[in-house]
Amino acid sequence: MPSQPQTVAVLGGGISGLTCALRLAQAGRRVTLIEASEQLGGLGTFFEHEGRTFEKFYHCMLPSDGPLLGVLESLGLRDEVYWKPTTFAYAHKGRFFPLNTAVDLLKFAPLTFIDRIRVGLTGLYGRLVSDRGLDDVTTVKWLTRLSGSRAFAKFWQPMLEAKFGDRYHDVPALWFWTRFNREKGESKGESKGYIRGGYKRITDSFARVLGELGADIRLRTSVQGIDLNSDGHVKVTTTSGTETFDQIVITLPTPQVSKLIGPALRSQLPALDTTTDYQGVINCLLFLKKPLTPHYWVATPESEHPFDGVVETSTLTDPADRGERHVVYLTKYLHRDDPRFSQDESALRAAWIPALKRLFPQLQQADIEASYIFHAPFVEPIYNLGQMKLRPPESLVAGSVYLANTAQVYPVVTSWNGSVIQAEKTLAAMGIRKV
How far is CA 153 from CA 96, 106, 110, 122, in A? Predict the structure, then answer.
């Protein structure tokens, strides 16, 4: 008799979990995908407004996102991605300074002319230099050496603080170098992509294909414990009960994983004793009746702004995907323990929306169709010096327990593309090759 296919539990229905579940099911495994929320997609989850769906947290793709685009190809969605040129600007004392070309940088009034030159040379050097040794040098030290202390304090430091808060001091220069070079080669200007029908279309396609392959998708099912049986099988306890599997792929954030591990499994996991912490994020999404800015992203690093950036995704998306309204996200990275992270929504609106009106005086209350607020506690890993040595391995227990989460993505940029890259690495450790 032929042997029964291996059973595999995939914990977490974000892009990492969906990619792992898809590849495993295609390889003939009996897959059970377990997700605590009522939706698949992780940070790509959605909500409904006026009969349309919108992402709770803004998303886009880059032409260099080959692994993610490859997954979309396997789902039959690659041709549904469309591309538009986008721009970036920097808000300073009520003015907006585009920063998309060398000429823009030369006109960047917040810096002295000499500092503009040094920042420009930093960018050029970053494109040419090898990443060798950058994991053992802080971003602060590297950028200060290249741009000077004055330009670092004025230009680079506020953007680092926007991402990591007061934890930016130990972030390795390799993190910055990788982010800077993500769009290397886009000599014709920055271009971003979106998919017709929104990111819900991606998760719906995953669910459909997984169903056709016989995978069991369980939503609203929280994992309460993970351990090993005496025979080496993986025991997973959820709100629905306890089951055993031949293998398990964990895609949850490392701090959550540490709380779920039982004693038998913990005794074999010294690699998880040192965990990577995460910044969370608050997004205030506004539907507006008219455009706010021609730029996709406006950085707002000055302390007077309660948010760190203004992202107008309607500069990227087609009206067919959003209607005639204009969609703006105000974003703020915070640690989940920061009191501001749990601030009451009415208090947050009372601070953020007037601040936006001060930044954009043409914005009137009548222009705001609606507003929504969303929180996510585990978004951007907080990296430490020498992070390459701190990354958890893909194989936690050989042959049975595997990990694919954003703590491992470094130095690749944290994004859906980065998560797909990590998922493929974990699958390779399981002996699953890309189809």
Answer: 19, 18, 12, 15
